[in-house]
């Protein structure tokens, strides 16, 4: 490959990396302006293997935040109940690769614009812990009458970051005011755009 | 055009079109200023990386894509010259210097050779005040119009004309034919 082509590939990789950093805003814009899709933060997380353990573990930290460590994506209802006991009203959906919940599932906090999203409760309520540490939910960002909506999508065909391999997952999450609409599972129109390339992978 | 410039930093296809349109001109621009194939290749990459950072600064009404791109490239070159050799080597090693095959090196050396007269001109211009030299370089060596050179340097076209005029006057008597497009 000539050096021009190498540089072009390097630049495209950089564009992709930057697009991933901008994902929250992009998803919001696309969602709000174009297709009416879910506004969502997308976080890649590894799923730990080993099926002997419980599907998940929930622990409360001294600062009031809650750690959720996911081992398997099952028992969503039970996890919702456990979180409810800890003061967080949550709506959790597990989805297969390439699937998404149709549309915005309610009145999204910070969902009007990328500017509003930055710093909003939706952007802050869930944090991905490094090194496969799971998720950290901050109950302070989920108020009375609000629900933390989390849609966890299996993402077997993608690898996020060089240091981790194996099954990866996406976690669109936001806080909804009032009622949450049930998830109508549809093909995710942005699925092929998950790397920010704006198109199908090269060679397809 | 403004929208298109934003797209070149976000859209693979838009970037690729932009890249293919200008990679040759940028390589030549750098080959006029640097005579090592590896450094030229690295700097081509750096210029286009800087394009991603600066795409929002492009304003169609102020000039051509190429003038804007040369402005970006010039900034990279001067940043490069400020950076010490040691730092440059370190940075190159860290980012993983791209391997150039013999075809690449031959092609780059050919361009570097082709730009030798231009590099000689640079030497001749070395004594000029910096601002005048910058305009003269872009007009005489890189073949921009005066207006485009002004865009590349981020100065008013009038100021560029004055500098060019002064530079030509100072260089009168040099055994080079200094031609450029006025505009």
Automatic annotation (TrEMBL), chain B:
Q: Can you tell me which family this protein belongs to?
A: Belongs to the sigma-70 factor family. ECF subfamily.
In this protein, which residues make up the domain named RNA polymerase sigma factor 70 region 4 type?
Answer: 120-171
User: Matching NCBIfam families, A to Z?
Assistant: sigma70-ECF (TIGR02937)
Q: Which organism is it from?
A: Streptosporangium jomthongense
Presence of the UniProt keyword Transcription in the record = yes
The superkingdom of the source organism is: Bacteria
Q: What is the protein name given in its UniProt record?
A: RNA polymerase sigma factor
Domain RNA polymerase sigma-70 region: start-end pairs: 18-83
What is any Pfam family matched here?
Sigma70_r4_2
List the keywords (alphabetical): DNA-binding, Sigma factor, Transcription, Transcription regulation
């Amino acid at each position: 490959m000539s050096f021009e082509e190498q540089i072009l590939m390097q630049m495209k990789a950089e564009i992709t990396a930057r697009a991933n950093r901008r994902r929250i805003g992009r998803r919001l814009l696309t969602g709000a302006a174009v297709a009416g899709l879910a506004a969502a933060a997308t976080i890649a997380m590894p799923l730990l293997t080993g099926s002997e353990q419980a599907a998940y573990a929930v622990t409360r930290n001294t600062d009031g935040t809650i750690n959720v460590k996911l081992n398997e994506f099952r028992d969503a209802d039970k996890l919702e109940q456990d979180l409810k006991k800890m003061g967080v009203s949550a709506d959790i959906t597990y989805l297969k690769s390439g699937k998404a919940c149709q549309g915005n599932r309610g009145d999204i906090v910070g969902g009007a614009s990328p500017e509003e999203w930055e710093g909003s409760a939706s952007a802050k309520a869930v944090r991905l812990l490094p090194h496969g540490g799971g998720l950290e939910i901050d109950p302070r960002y989920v108020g009375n009458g609000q629900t933390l909506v989390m849609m966890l999508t299996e993402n077997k065909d993608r690898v996020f970051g060089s240091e981790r391999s194996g099954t990866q997952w996406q976690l669109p999450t936001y806080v909804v005011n009032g009622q949450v609409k049930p998830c109508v599972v549809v093909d995710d129109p942005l699925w092929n755009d998950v790397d920010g390339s704006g198109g199908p992978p090269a060679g397809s | 055009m403004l929208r298109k410039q934003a797209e070149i930093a976000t859209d693979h296809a838009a970037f690729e079109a932009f890249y293919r349109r200008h990679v040759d001109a940028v390589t030549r621009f750098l080959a006029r200023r640097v005579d090592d194939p590896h450094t030229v290749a690295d700097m081509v990459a750096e210029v286009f990386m800087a394009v991603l950072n600066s795409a929002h600064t492009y304003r169609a009404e102020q000039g051509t894509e190429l003038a804007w791109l040369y402005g970006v490239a010039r900034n990279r070159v001067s940043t490069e010259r400020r950076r010490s050799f040691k730092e440059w080597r370190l940075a190159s090693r860290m980012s993983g210097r791209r391997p150039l095959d013999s075809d690449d090196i031959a092609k780059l050396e050919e361009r570097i050779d082709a730009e030798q007269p231009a590099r000689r001109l640079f030497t001749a211009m070395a004594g000029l005040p910096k601002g005048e030299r910058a305009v003269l370089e872009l007009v005489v060596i890189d073949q921009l119009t005066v207006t485009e050179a002004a865009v590349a340097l981020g100065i008013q076209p009038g100021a560029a004309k004055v500098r060019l005029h002064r530079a030509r006057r100072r260089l009168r008597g040099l055994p080079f034919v200094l031609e450029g497009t006025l505009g």
